[in-house]
Amino acid sequence: MLSTIISGGADIIALVLLFGFTIFVHELGHFLVALWCGMQIDTFSIGFGPAIVKKTVRGVTYKIGWFPLGGYVALPQLDPAGMSTVQGKADDKDADDKDPGSESSDDEKKEEVRVLPPIAAWKKILVALAGATGNVIFALVLAMIIYMSPWEPSEDLGGAVVGFVDTSSAAYHSGLRIGDEIVAVNGNSIESWTDYSTESLLGAREDKDLTLTLKSDGELRDIGVPTIDVDMGVRMIDGMGRSLLCVIGAVMPDSAAAVAGVEPEDIVESFGGVTVVSTEHFIELVTANGVKTSGMVVARGDKQVEITVTPVMNEELGRAVIGVSISAGVMSSSTQWMQYKNPVDQLKGDASGILRILKALTTPKEAKNAAQGLGGPIMIIMALWMSIKVSFLNAIGFLRFLNINLAILNLLPIPVLDGGHIIFALWEGITRRKVSAKLVNILTNIFMILLLSAFLIITFRDVKRAPKVFKMINSMSAEEVQESPTNAVDNAEPPAVPNKED
Hints:
The protein is an alpha+beta fold. The chain has 15 helices and 18 strands. Among the domains are: 159-242, PDZ domain (Pdz3 Domain, Roll), CATH 2.30.42; 245-328 and 484-494, Pdz3 Domain (Roll), CATH 2.30.42. Helix 1 (2-36) packs parallel to helix 13 (392-410) and helix 10 packs across helix 11. 37% of the residues are buried.
């Protein structure tokens, strides 16, 4: 119990630090370039709302807010009318700093009419770009950490390989089988399970089957598979799951596996000359093999070990077993952010995945599905938590992906975001006329209302989805398969929530 509490506390600390540092490097980029450009800086804040701690140094208020889902650098010369409202003008002059009897309204009026020297348009553009640049630089550093690590992407189980198919499902009756590799969805080529999840999410229709192009035994074939509503309008194929590592849990004393030399934590790579793509696949292969002596290859640490094993018949189950408990392990390259070793490929992979969703949001036939699949801050934090549970390196990969995501989204040409400032500054630089402060204020307020509305809708969906994700995360901390004296090979459960990957 104590170890669970300590582990949970460590996870929370790691979450806060990792997520907070992503915000910090973004705002630090704005801050440093604004400082270099000689701009007036009122506030540097990590988080919104009332300050937990704050300190004013040389006219700049540094603070940490109670709501850690963002941050800002208040730059009145960059945004005198619009963003001051959004970024917390009231926060910067917190009530606890004021004398209750002072003439605060007069001070505020003086603040509103203060005159600051104009700033060149190119400097405004540099400052607006600096936040995203900070995130990209940080993402590159993280990519280099992954590149210099001993980790290598999985080759044997690369691609969108099917590791589980429920024999009673529509997917099975449509012709989908364990070991099939999905190479295209509705004609769109894919290279990973993440690509499959994205394309099936975007292409799913209630009145039309998904067309999967499958590769098995070197041959291609197309099948049509219906989808079901799995969560609040999100449609996916039911009864199938991805390939996952087949990890040996316990080895039963005096069993066939024990005699053959199988050890706990071995990862089964092949059985009878066939590559094993999941726990279910392993069970299927052992069952089909019967009691014939067969070769088995396992990964033990950084070595491959060849084992010869003779399964025995389990009368109670009516099939052959070798005498182990097994569980599904997450592959090191099973997530979108852990597919590549080369740093450039890592960043390109992150950017292409994000741009694919943005393209879908602007494509009429895909926009609804794309919007239904979006996750907000709660899902981002839970995804980061899940990544921490998998491994430190996987968390580094997700943080890199998150930084590229933040950089791209902030550069969208929308008032309120950095991209909006760039558009206004470009207009000023080209026409030699500033955009009307009144127009900036109107546009900022309109888009702020739209973004806040979208934020609330997505957050509401996140809250409804969170229990399922939380259950998935908790399951990663526990043994998925317990040792059973009567059920050795055969006690493994299918991958949890197979349609919920990424």
